[in-house]
Amino acid sequence: MNGAPPDIRDEELLSSVIADLIGDSRHVAVGNASPIPATAALLARERGKGKPYVSLLQSRKHNFFTDGARELFDCAGQGRIDVFFLSGGQIDGEGNINLVSIGEYDNPKVRFPGSFGSSYLYYVVPKVILFRVEHSRRTLVEKVDFISAPGVSAPNVFRTGGPVALVTNRCFFSFDPKRKRFRLDSVHPEHTVEEVIENTAFDFDRPAQVPTTTPPSPATLKLMRETVAPQLAEVYPQFAAQVFGVGKTAFTD
Amino acid sequence: MPVIASQIEDALAPIKDGCLLVVPREVSGVPMAATRALIKRGIKRLHLVALPTSSLQADLLIGAGCVETLETSAVSLGEFGPAPRFSEAITKGTIRMKDATCPALHAALQAAEKGVPFMPLRGLVGSDVLKFRKDWKLIDSPFGDDDPIVLLPALKPDVALIHAPMADRNGNVWIGRQRELATMAHAAIKTVVTVEKLYDGILLDDPVLAAGTLPGFYVESVAIAPRGAWPLPLPDHYAADADHLAEYARMAATTEGFADYLERYVYERRAA
Which of A23, A248, B96, B234 is deepest in the core (most CB within 10 A)? Predict the structure, then answer.
């Protein structure tokens, strides 16, 4: 592979990788501040001709819930949500995520928004896909300062879900809960294994030959740009405008 | 019967300094006109619960010095970046933070709704969210075999403050599918509502509307506030004012800029 065509943006590559990971699922939910997963989920739905169900929690249009904001969590607790997405100010090599703060909790140097639903959904959604666009030693750390949700739990803890993968602007890792470690599955076009090692503060497994991430096909790109992008604008007007050039006026009902 | 107030300020009378106030998430119908009125009144020492997250509303109240304790799962301006007054208050230690996770707040309010002392919840075990919540308890499930589970005490707010599309003259409030607004009202001792308009008729008389109606017996007072969620969205009615939120993010980045924002948009009352 000679690298992605220059006109493919990082956001498009990442959305395509995540859409492939969603695979054959029944219900995919997307939380706050997740424009790339939202793109991926809507793309998966377009490809699947309406399957999976996609619920964007901040959307009025792309949202099946009618029993209030708690319904997602009740659904997830029963195993009715198959895929969810989480990020973190910090993510460590054991899959722990930190959405709260850097430094001491009672006297933090940096404060992030907060844990959102992670301290629950990470345990009960079978396929949690981690995404963190900025891949650096600042974000992919050896040990998180605060555990919003742990990557793995003791055997007696009720846990039907957890992380399966981590997608960044440089590469794609899968997660092995038995080994409590990430594995480098592919490096994105125009990036290298050396660069991934240099920018990751935790150890990870990798095969002798690391493949290159498959970039989105022309058909996928067309679907994303022409069909998915206008749907995103309701919830992510800035992202839709910056990445896909969708006008701000498109999101009024 | 609920009071149908002619002025927002009158409807807000049940919200007193130091009270435990619950407000909805950023996309559910946030009573922003009421929030500006509370800041203008100079409300103090709120224990603010945002169910389960917040954006502009919590940031404004914190920046204006109205909040003593904040209990929520996250505060962020979403696409417009971090919530600057919230972040500064936490790093400077000027408010007390009770970090939660979304379903825990829903469950704790549901306990209050049912009049039971606590609600169990999955997840949380081994997280630092649980570690720093001394008021939450980890027990071995009495129905399980070595099955640790978290118990959350019932959360009973003094007042729930919501904004909805319409109410009728009996104080019944149409909330549609934003059912968490009903949970808040059921759990709270009193509920204060602002609405876009008065409905000409009785909401409970129409079975289609009745299904999405919060009965007036939960409601203390109602005030009419057209575009009362501005600059946040009201589902099915209007979108967020993205330009204004971007302006807020810019101005609130500094203490001086935030003071200018308050001056321009809160103290100098400006029609939306």
Answer: B234
The model's confidence at residue B58, banded by pLDDT at 50, 70 and 90, is very high
Pick the CATH number of B3-103+156-267 from 3.40.1080.10, 3.40.50.150, 3.40.50.170, 1.10.3720.10: 3.40.1080.10
Residue ranges of domains in chain A: 10-88+116-137+160-191+203-251
pLDDT higher than threshold 70 for residue B26: yes
Q: How many CA atoms lie within 13 A of A252 on its CB side?
A: 6
In the predicted structure, residue A99 carries a pLDDT above the cut 70: yes
Q: What angle do CA B72, B78, B83 make, to 5 degrees?
A: 60
A66–B123 C-beta distance less than 8 A: no
Domain boundaries, given as residue ranges, for chain B: 3-103+156-267, 118-153
Inform me whether the C-beta atom of residue A133 falls under 8 Å from chain B C-beta atoms. Answer: no
Average pLDDT, chain B: 96
Q: What is A10-88+116-137+160-191+203-251's CATH topology?
A: Glutaconate Coenzyme A-transferase (3.40.1080)
| Other C-beta atoms lying within 10 Å of the C-beta of residue A217 | 10
Closest residue on chain A to B237 (Cα): A253
Contacts of A66 (CB under 8 A, 6+ apart): B177, B179
**A193 Cβ contact partners less than 8 Å away, ≥ 6 residues apart:** A184, A187, A206, A210
CA of B230 vs chain A CAs: smallest distance (Å): 15
Q: Evaluate the CA torsion angle A19, A23, A26, A29 in order and state its sign.
A: negative
Q: Is B203 left (phi over 0), alpha (psi -120 to 50) or beta?
A: alpha
Q: Is A116 on the interface with B (CB under 8 A)?
A: yes
Contacts of B209 (CB under 8 A, 6+ apart): B174, B199, B203
Q: In the numeric block, which tokens belong to residue B230? A: 């501005």
DSSP A214: P
Beta pairing partners, A30: A56
pLDDT above 90: percentage of residues in chain A: 83
Tokens of A225: 């740009």
Task: Give Cβ neighbours of residue B232 (< 8 Å, ≥ 6 apart).
Answer: B26, B27, B30, B32, B55, B56, B57, B240
Residues A130-174: tens digit of each pLDDT: 999 999 999 999 999 999 999 999 999 999 999 999 999 999 999
- Strand A163-168 with A107-111, pairing: unpaired
Chain A partners within 8 Å of B129 (Cβ): 100, 115, 119, 147-148
Cα(B29)–Cα(B84) distance, integer angstroms: 22
Chain A residues touching B73 at Cβ < 8 A = 114-117
